[in-house]
Specification:
By secondary structure, this protein is of the alpha/beta class. It has helices at about 25-30, 35-60, 80-90, 105-115, 145-155, 165-180, 195-210, 230-235, and strands at about 5-10, 10-15, 65-70, 95-100, 120-125, 140-145, 160, 190-195, 225. The chain contains eight helices and nine strands. The chain has a seven-stranded parallel β-sheet with strand order 6-5-4-3-7-8-9, with helices on both faces.
């Protein structure tokens, strides 16, 4: 039997088929054929508890900036070091730093914040292969449901810095941009850090989406694309400021 384990809330599941249980998000989206009343009322209570636990844990958090990026970035990669500098710089400007709590760029941003003696937050998520929280977290909250976790990022952040990453990073990026574009969140700066990584995407957004009228040309100004740590920090402003 495999020694691999997975944490599901307060429960730790060992490897092997006998202990195989679907993740909470997976179970929620499965079509079981059973009536709604058999399972989903209990899920509603579990979802409610995630929001209550998240709100309670983060209620006294100072103004914060979330840093997103790949869990696969090695410690010797230039983006890892840039994320450390961003985490440190955000603390020096008075912000807490929030990440997904995992390895790679998330770890780097938490590391910069932690080593600067700031508040370093990790919002973890239940995954098939347990990642665990990185060692530079001063406050960590684990979630079963992606949508509950994403609500916490938006509710407790004053801005986002999005570094190179994969599908999860793109999901967080475009959900935030949609909320900014539609006015659900206001005065919310978004930085795309790493010109070489983001340039092809922004070219497509400009030359295809904006060119054909699927977004307004003015929507292109919703993001700042940069390779410069100080420019990224300047875009976040200071706690309590309305970014320019």
């Amino acid at each position: 039997m495999s020694d691999q384990k997975r944490r599901a809330g307060a429960v730790v599941l060992g490897g092997g088929e006998r202990t195989r249980q679907p993740m909470a998000d997976e179970a929620l989206l499965q079509h079981t054929g059973q009536p709604w009343s058999h399972l989903d009322p209990w899920r509603v209570l579990r979802i409610q508890s995630e929001f209550v636990e998240g709100f309670d844990a983060l209620k006294e958090l100072p103004p914060a900036v979330s840093v997103f990026g790949s869990a696969r970035t090695s410690t010797d990669h230039p983006m890892y070091q840039a994320a450390v500098e961003l985490g440190r710089g955000l603390v020096h400007r008075g912000f807490a730093v929030i990440t997904g709590g995992g390895p790679g760029i998330m770890e780097a941003a938490n590391r910069g914040a932690f080593e600067a003696e700031g508040t370093s937050v990790g919002l973890g998520i239940e995954l098939p292969n347990e990642q665990g929280m990185n060692e530079f977290i001063s406050l960590g909250v684990n979630f079963r449901y992606f949508f509950a976790r994403k609500t916490m990022f938006l509710k407790y952040s004053q801005g986002f810095i999005t570094m190179p990453g994969g599908f999860g990073t793109l999901d967080e990026l475009f959900e935030a941009l949609t909320l900014i574009q539609t006015g659900k969140v206001k005065n919310f700066p978004m930085v795309l850090f790493g010109r070489a990584h983001w340039a092809p995407l922004m070219e497509w957004v400009r030359d295809t989406m904006a060119e054909h009228g699927f977004i307004a040309r003015s929507d292109l100004s919703l993001v700042t694309v940069t390779d410069d740590v100080e420019e990224a920090l300047d875009a976040m402003g200071r706690p309590g400021e309305i970014p320019g």
